[in-house]
Amino acid sequence: MSEPASISAGIAARYATAIFEIAEESKSLDSLESSINDLDAALADSAELSELITSPVISREAQGAAITAVADKMGIDPTVRNTLALMAEKRRLFVLPALIAALRERLAEARGEVTAEVISAKALTKTQSEKLAKTLAERVGKKVTINASVDASIIGGLVVKVGSKMIDSSIRSKLNSLQNAMKEVG
C-alpha cells in the first residue's frame, strides 16, 4: 500500500471506529448502513460530489456547507452527517471512499459476514456464485458475500481473496508456474 493510501486508510479507520461505536450504542446500525450505501451511490453517480470532496481549491467552509446540505437532502444519519461536517472542517473529506469501505467492513464483521473478492474469466452464474459462497462459508465459518468481477486475461479458473488469504486457480497462474519450472530445468 502506498504511503498516501495508508494514511487515508488510517484516517478513515479512526473515523469509522468512532461512527460505528456511536451507531452501535444508539442501536442505529441499519440507519448507518443505509446512509453509507446512499453516500456511496451518490459518489459514484455525481462527478460534482467527487470533485467537492477532493478539490483543494474549495474552502473548508464551502465544503462543509455543501456536504451538510447534501447529507440533509439525502436524509443521512445524523452521526454520519456530523462526521462529514467535521471532516470538511479538518480538510479530510478526501478519505470518504475509504471511510465507506471501512464502515462496510465493520458492519459485515458485526453481522458475522465476510466479503470474498472473486475474479473469473467470465461472469459467474447465480448458481455458481451461490455454490462458491456456500463452500467458502464452510471454510471460513462465516457468511460469505461474493463480490465478483470478470478478467478475461486469467483465461479460466478463479482467483478468490477472502481477507488476507488468496486462492489462485487461474489458468494464467498455472501457465506462469509451468513457464518458471521450464526455465529452471533448461
Describe this structure in words.
With 186 residues, the chain is α+β, with helices and mostly antiparallel strands. It has 2 domains: 3-109, N-terminal domain of the delta subunit of the F1F0-ATP synthase (Peroxidase, domain 1), CATH 1.10.520.20; 113-185, 3-Layer(aba) Sandwich (Glutaredoxin). Helix content is 65%, strand content 13%. The chain has a 4-stranded mixed beta sheet with strand order 2-1-3-4, sandwiched between helices. A hairpin with a 2-residue loop joins strand 3 (158-162) and strand 4 (165-168). 19% of the residues are buried. The model has no long low-confidence stretch (mean pLDDT 92).
Secondary structure topology:
Elements (H helix, E strand, L loop, with lengths): L2 H23 L3 H17 L1 H8 L5 H15 L3 H12 L6 H15 L2 E8 L5 H15 L2 E8 L7 E5 L2 E4 L2 H15 L1
Parallel strand pairs: 1-2
Antiparallel strand pairs: 1-3, 3-4
Largest sheet geometry? 4 strands, mixed
Poorly predicted parts: none
Element-level helix/strand string:
HHHHHHEHEEEH
Number of domains: 2
* CATH topology assignment of the largest domain: Peroxidase, domain 1
Under CATH at level 1, the class of the largest domain stands as Mainly Alpha
Shape: elongated
Percent strand equals 5-15%
* Whole-angstrom Rg: 20 Å
The number of helices is: 8
What is the name of the CATH architecture of the largest domain? Answer: Orthogonal Bundle
Helical percentage: 55-70%
Structural class: alpha+beta
